[in-house]
Request: fold
Amino acid sequence: MMKNILKAIMLIFIISLMSSTFVDEVTAYDVGNQDDEIVRTIEKLNELRVVYDLPVLSYSEELNKTAAVHNKYMDFNKSYTSIEESGKLYYRGRYPWDRASYAGYDNTYVFESSVKNINTYTSGIGFLLANPYSRYALLDPLYADLGMNSYDEYNTFLFGGSNRERNYKVVYPYPDQNNVDVNFTNKYIINPYKNISNVPENVGIPITYSIYTSEARVLAFNNLEVSLLNTRTNEYVDIKVINSIEDRNLTNSIMVLPLEAYDYGTTYEISISTNIRLSNAIQFDSSSYMVYVDYAETFTTKQSTDSLPVYSYITRADFVQNLMKISNYIIRDSLEIIFPDVNINSDNYKYIYTAYINKIILGYGDGLYRPEANITREQVYTILIRNYENEKNNGVIKIEDSEKVLEFSDKNLISNYAFDSLYKAKKIGLLVDNQYKFDPGVYITTSEFENIMKRYNLIMKGNN
Reply:
């Protein structure tokens, strides 16, 4: 009873402190520090932008901070919107560019996009790329910077830039693109099918033809003709075509909405013919007020889900939670802040705390834990060995000098801190060492996690 009263008093104190200070500065927890997943997400998006010869994106800490605080604004105020209201908790500016400026971001243009309930940043970018309204920004040469952050169910991506150095035509899916999703899932605020009646449950990924220019806007799409052909059946897909003259949420674009799902492993041909009239003359093949479009290219959908592996990754918080649940520790809760980026009110805090007080996890050198970052292969084995040695007094695994050998072809990539744990994992049979790549920095997938934990459980049972 006394423990619950003390916890309630402490929570009231924390809330009152937050209210009185109006949360003037962003803490390390707000900023996120999920850097490995952020880097991987930016790299994946840049791989696509390079296809169109678009400028690559760089990480922006200022945009990261802006995204972090806006997520908290949406969560605490229960307001899923890009527009903030003055006077509310975590208010930093009415519009995204106001908030970015508050955080110290200098460039003029800022685009914000939020997604709820995603597993990773890369999956969030995938959902945004699938939607034509958010896709326009993801592929806009105007933007050179990107920041992202997550809090609870909210995930915000912020793009920033200053100018477009030249004009671009961008079609998505791009010519000869493979592994295009067969079904469209909307997680963006605006649904492209919102005003279309009798839409089937499953529809294909929308197609867009966009012009990016700072010099002109589209005034008309004259003689617009669009078709989408299934080359396997030689039948045309039923589609709805909407352009930016008809829909103010689009910019200089044609949007092609399939009204049926794509077939797996099938090549489709998208054909677009139109004369685009512009407000000003711009330079493509030549300087003109008209852009003549005669586009016909193909893309291919992914193979059946039965034949493709599904990659889902384990976060550092999820890994520790799973490990603590199968271990014999007493799960302890506390209001002690052991890592500034771990929320003491989160569901997995008690597992992280239990692992910490038992010296199973140590965190990073900067004092952070990065709970939402994906856990790497060498990190998994390091934590498992610490747990093995600590649990049931197994004791420290002794390694002779002759046993300090690894045959992995990429062992030079292993971090110094991980070598000792990998030697021990090899000795107890948890790790198979051979002449193949270990990929120490690769993220652990759910399937690999399950296989490793099966071996670990068998080893632990053998020690009982």
About this structure: Residues 2-21 form the longest helix (20 residues). Confidence is low (pLDDT under 50) at residues 1-34.
